[in-house]
Design goal:
713 residues; mainly beta; Immunoglobulin-like; five-stranded mixed β-sheet; 1 helix; disordered N terminus
Length: 713
């Protein structure tokens, strides 16, 4: 996570309150020309401390190239500045206090072989430092070098941004350690050792010791390259000075960064910032968190479309950037967006929560996009239980490092192609294939079928009856992958194992049943059942109706029946309780509206029959009544105007005033007009009104009725 550097330049109050020591410092210079150099020493201290004060001036010693004393000068102190810790509504951190001062002065240092070393020494360090043994006995040396024969008037690099002293445990940090350089030279950044100087007996010597200087020794498990427990470990970009890492252990740690200045491959100067970082537990009230891809298995090797998830803290708004070079501006404001990439590859995804606000936070995570791993299992060989010889192969496009693992029948085999072990029974056997290729995993399952030879075992019983005669055929044949063919003897066939067939025509029929299998153990068997079905032909009947739908005012229906010559008895049921016997033509009148089912049964001398059905409908006529006046005065009598209607499918009642404006409208005949605008507005005035009723009758015909009425109050 990119931590906001509002935790800049803090000291742990609980740590600093006990120490009376400096926090860190650095030295740099600017060439003023004619051998004059302005030297700047920046010293940080804990302002809760009662020792190691920022004195009015400090001594800086200049040594020639061979290490001998050349000159010494007192640098005057600038104003002591209290670092204002910004109030962060998005982070709960300890209350701390830090101050610093810059000491400046001008040295006259003519160009000389070997150049000069400038140094200031001061003791001592905080006794609470975690990565140094006996940290209180070790002092500070702030130093830099002026190059040999500096006729070009070189200025050293100077760190541009003050570093944070307070880091949050478990939070990824990115710290800008870049330096400004006025001469266009190349800069190289590295983690380096802090330098020792001065002592507890002489904490502020007037002259610094001559170089070279000893490094402050780190405790076991620590070094200049690994000064803070972190995962991932701290590292600095050699070209940009960007320091990254995720500290994971609370404490106070000595830390140093060096920036070296090169011109045409020659080292000119080096500036070191000696510092101590404080790692503490922070409680963010707003933190951007992208669920990592390892916790989203459905995004691994699942094609170009990714469903992102986040578990941010205190997020009110979200802004995602998907890092797709083919669509640089691709973004989303959804909390958990879905995005489709243009191609496979690795992409850096960015989430900003609460963008543009005080509680904004940013996190980045890399996502790897791959197409799904596609593979199939291909099996071949003999699949008969009596003689097995089966092989399996993984089919697909695989890389040279793809791995294959097979499981079947309790055994495990390896390789892209395998020979299956002997299986002990007919039926399905589960074959599993595990494929691992280019970081993607796939599990395939295939059912390997073993078959046995077919054995015909059906049940075809003699059947006799009237047409249409329904006959059920049953089969209990044994075999794997059986296929069936039934010939019912009347020109009809079936491929079902247990078919049901309806004979429509009288006669005697022979049934043939065949089974076969082409799976595993190919074979075929046929059985013939001669004259097993006898069908007696049923009579045929029909009916003609003069009209199937009539109105209540014309509700008599004329029916005429026809039948084959062998019919000896008929019965007609009209659906209203009326029954007619042996009538070939009849007229029947229904007493009321409704829908009636007519059933006509015709029988021959053998008791076989035919039944026909017909539906008749008597529709009601539409009845509509609208009063010629009503009095909506609240006396409970005639206070609403209704359009009373019956015999309709759809209904619409509209009321117009004298100017043609609709003052009331309803599709519910149970809702009447109360004399106000749409039954909710102001009262309508006394007078004449027009109504229109639109409706659809039972036959689906659209009709309209209109008229007038008086509103009286």
């Amino acid at each position: 996570m990119f931590k906001k550097l509002l935790i800049s330049l803090l000291l742990l109050g609980t740590l600093s309150a006990q120490g009376a020591h400096l926090v860190g410092g650095e030295m740099s210079y600017v060439c003023l020309g004619n051998g004059s150099y302005q030297i700047t020493v920046t010293i940080f201290r804990d302002c809760n401390s009662n020792g190691a004060p920022l004195s009015d001036s400090i001594p800086v010693t200049a040594f020639s190239g061979n290490g001998s004393f050349f000159a010494q000068k007192a640098l005057g102190r600038g104003p002591i500045q209290l670092i204002q810790i910004p109030v962060d509504p998005c982070m709960q951190v300890p209350s701390v206090c830090t101050e610093y001062a810059e000491y400046t002065g001008v040295f006259q240092l003519p160009a000389a072989v070997g150049g000069y070393t400038l140094s200031h020494q001061r003791c001592c360090r905080n006794s609470t430092i975690s990565n140094v043994n006996n940290p209180g006995v070790w002092g500070n040396t702030f130093t830099t070098r002026i190059p040999s024969m500096d006729n070009s008037c070189n200025s050293s690099p100077r760190f541009s941004v003050q570093p944070p002293l307070l880091l949050c445990s478990g939070e990824e940090v990115t710290i800008d350690y870049s330096a400004a350089e006025n001469d266009g030279d190349s800069l190289y950044y590295e983690l380096c050792s802090a330098l020792h100087g001065a002592s507890q007996n002489n904490p502020g010597p007037q002259a610094a010791d001559a170089p070279p200087y000893n490094s402050v020794p780190y405790a076991q498990g620590f070094s200049s390259q690994n000064p803070i427990p972190a995962n991932p470990a701290f590292q600095i970009d050699a070209n940009t000075g960007l320091l990254t890492g995720t500290p994971n252990q609370i404490g106070q740690y000595l830390f140093a960064v060096c920036v070296s200045e090169y011109r045409n491959g020659q080292l000119l100067s080096k500036v070191s910032r000696d510092f101590q970082f404080n790692v503490t537990a922070c409680n963010p009230t707003a933190r951007a968190v992208i669920v990592p891809q390892i916790e989203l298995p459905n995004t691994l090797c699942n094609g170009l479309t990714v469903a992102f998830q986040q578990n941010s803290i205190g997020a009110m708004d979200h802004l995602w950037f998907f890092g797709d070079p083919a669509s640089p501006g691709a973004s989303s404001t959804q909390a958990n967006p879905t995005y489709t990439y243009s191609d496979t590859g690795r992409y850096m995804v960015t989430l900003i929560i609460n963008p543009g606000t005080v509680c904004s936070d940013t996190v980045r995570r890399e996502f790897k996009i791959n197409y799904p791993l596609e593979a199939e299992i291909a099996t071949s060989g003999v699949f008969c239980t009596e003689s097995q010889d089966i092989s399996a192969e993984a089919v697909g496009q695989f890389g040279p490092n793809a791995r294959f693992r097979w499981e079947i029948g309790g055994q495990t085999l390896f390789g892209r192609s395998i020979d299956l072990p002997q299986l002990n029974a007919a039926g399905a056997h589960t074959l599993k294939l595990y494929v691992d290729d280019f970081g993607c995993a796939l599990v395939l399952t295939e059912q390997v079928m073993l078959y046995q030879r077919p054995v015909l075992n059906d049940q075809v019983n003699a059947a006799m009856g009237c047409s249409p005669l329904r006959v059920v055929f049953q089969d209990q044949s044994v075999g794997s992958g059986l296929q069936h063919f039934w010939d019912f003897g009347d020109g009809n066939t079936s491929l079902a194992s247990n078919p049901v067939h309806v004979y429509q025509t009288g006669g005697t029929y022979t049934v043939t049943h065949s089974i076969w299998s082409n799976l595993g153990c190919p074979d075929s068997i046929t059985e013939v059942y001669t004259n097993i079905v006898e069908v007696i032909q049923s009579p045929e009947a029909d009916v003609a109706v003069d009209q199937k739908r009539k109105s209540f005012y014309d509700r008599s229906f004329r029916l005429e029946f026809s039948a084959s010559a062998d019919v000896v008895y008929s019965e007609t049921r009209m659906g209203d309780g009326s029954v007619y016997y042996d009538e070939l033509a009849l007229t029947h009148q229904y007493a009321d509206t409704g829908t009636y089912e007519v059933v006509h049964i015709a029988l021959n001398a053998l008791g076989c029959g035919d039944t026909i059905r017909e539906t008749l409908r008597v529709d009601p006529e539409v009845v509509l009544f609208v009063p010629t006046a009503f009095t909506p005065n609240g006396d409970g009598v005639n206070d609403r105007l209704f359009a009373a209607a019956m015999g309709f499918r759809t209904f619409e009642f509209l009321v117009f005033d004298r100017w043609g404006k609709v003052v009331f409208q309803t599709a519910d005949p149970e809702t009447g007009w109360d004399g106000s605008f749409q039954n909710a507005g102001s009262e309508a005035p006394t007078g004449m009104y027009t109504y229109v009723v639109n409706f659809t009758d039972e036959r689906g015909h659209h009709q309209q009725r209109n008229g007038q009425f008086h509103l009286l109050r």
